[in-house]
């Protein structure tokens, strides 16, 4: 049974890695996951998309959105995360304490245990003694995986974790910080790169350190994701493009991402991202304004935009509104049974200097239905408070 699982897991990863060379990916027809009939022109579809965004925006789930944006977070009630796992809103917490065998039992799939070890490096304000170190040796495998099913799944989920990428780490091809959903749920990763997902079966996204740019951004797959020339192939769509959002190698970083599933038939799904407790991105139906450049949405940018018209099989250039066009929101699913039901921590490094160890540490992972926030420091002792 175990072997069968490993073989299947291996096959799924091969499927993902095979798709990496961009030019070798098959062309994807819009009919594979049609938001609109294929016979509609791009202009009509864009207009319809804007109307959907407007309607969704007019019914924006502001109450839903605002409750967490003003919240201090669950972690504020559990100093150094002590006891946070018992909070009613927390669905999973991993501190990487105890021995490796016990830690592995918390996860449904653990791949390449040989590169994993416990490390004495821990985030500031962490209560523990260890973090998990993945040390991938260049040209000896591609990295490791920790994957867990979140039983039953959730329509709104926050995932917070601390990551530390070594100061001498070489560019990372893909990285998790990955959350997503499969219907039905699978106890191992089944993502397929290079094509939109089936809206009734899957979606996923990671917060990634984007190659040699070392810049945090989303890497998102869903059924309406945008494509690129020359054949409309799709790779993880990104939504930030802020050169100031630099990955600080050698330092611990707190990453928290929120996924809000759409109502079936609407594009009112949302994503939000916090880095070290500061919200750096929030996207939903009607916000922010910006423009598309193929598979990249650039917030705050207006002017000439370009998309790949899947129906006509060509580029289409157009001018945005003066302040940019409102983002249309996410239609992650076409079936309400699809929700957020997995978390996946991994490194995937395909190039590097032979023999060089590319090290990444993970710690203090919390998954919850409410905003979590960064670790809260231990309160100073009364005697320290009184010091001048
Ligand atoms: Ca720990």
CATH hierarchy class name: Mainly Beta
Major pleated sheet: 8 strands, antiparallel
Q: Using only CA atoms, what is the Rg?
A: 21 Å
Note poorly predicted spans: 1-63
Q: Which bin fits the share of residues in helices?
A: 10-25%
Structural class: mainly beta
How much is the average pLDDT? 85
Write the layout of secondary structure elements.
Elements: H1 2-18, H2 42-58, H3 62-69, E1 90-94, H4 100-104, E2 109-111, E3 116-119, E4 131-137, E5 145-154, E6 156-165, E7 174-182, E8 202-208, E9 217-221, E10 252-260, E11 270-275, E12 278-283, E13 285-293, E14 296-299, E15 304-309, E16 314-319, E17 325-328, E18 340-348, E19 357-368, H5 382-385
Antiparallel strand pairs: 1-19, 2-5, 3-4, 4-19, 5-18, 6-10, 6-19, 7-8, 7-18, 8-9, 10-11, 11-12, 13-14, 13-17, 15-16
Bound molecules: calcium ion.
For the structure shown, list the relevant keywords.
388 residues, 8-stranded antiparallel β-sheet, 19 strands, disordered N terminus, mainly beta, binds calcium ion, Jelly Rolls, 6-stranded antiparallel β-sheet
């Amino acid at each position: 049974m175990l072997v069968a699982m490993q073989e299947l897991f291996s096959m799924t990863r091969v499927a993902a890695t095979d798709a990496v060379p961009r030019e070798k990916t098959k062309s994807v027809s819009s009919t594979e996951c049609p938001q609109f009939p294929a016979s509609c022109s791009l202009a009509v579809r864009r207009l319809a998309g804007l109307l959907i965004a407007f309607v969704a925006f007019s019914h924006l789930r502001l109450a839903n959105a605002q409750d967490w944006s003003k919240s201090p977070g669950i972690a504020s009630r559990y100093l150094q995360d002590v006891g946070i796992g018992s909070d009613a809103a927390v669905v999973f917490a991993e501190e990487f304490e105890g021995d490796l065998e016990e830690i592995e039992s918390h996860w449904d799939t653990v791949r390449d245990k040989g590169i994993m070890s416990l490390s004495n490096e821990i985030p500031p304000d962490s209560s523990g003694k260890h973090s998990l170190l993945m040390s991938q040796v260049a040209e000896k495998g591609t990295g490791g995986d920790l994957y867990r099913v979140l039983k039953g799944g959730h329509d709104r989920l926050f995932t917070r974790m601390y990551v530390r990428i070594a100061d001498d780490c070489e560019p990372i091809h893909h990285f998790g910080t990955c959350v997503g959903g499969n219907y039905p749920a699978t106890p191992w990763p089944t993502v397929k790169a290079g094509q939109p997902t089936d809206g009734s079966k899957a979606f996923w996204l990671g917060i990634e350190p984007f190659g040699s740019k070392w810049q945090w951004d989303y890497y998102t797959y869903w059924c309406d994701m945008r494509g690129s020339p020359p054949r409309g192939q799709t790779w993880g769509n990104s939504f930030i493009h802020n050169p100031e959002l630099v990955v600080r190698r050698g330092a611990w970083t707190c990453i928290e991402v929120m996924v809000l599933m759409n109502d079936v038939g609407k594009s009112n799904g949302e994503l939000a991202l916090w880095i070290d407790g500061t919200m750096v991105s929030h996207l939903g139906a009607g916000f922010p304004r910006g423009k598309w450049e193929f598979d990249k949405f650039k917030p705050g940018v207006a002017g000439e935009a370009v998309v790949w018209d899947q129906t006509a099989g060509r580029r289409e250039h157009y001018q945005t509104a003066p302040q940019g066009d409102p983002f249309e929101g996410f239609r992650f699913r076409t079936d309400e049974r699809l929700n957020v039901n997995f978390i996946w921590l991994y490194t995937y490094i395909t190039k590097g200097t032979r023999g060089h160890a590319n090290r990444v540490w993970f710690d203090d992972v919390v998954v919850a239905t409410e905003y979590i926030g960064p670790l809260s420091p231990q309160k100073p002792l009364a005697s320290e408070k009184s010091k001048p």
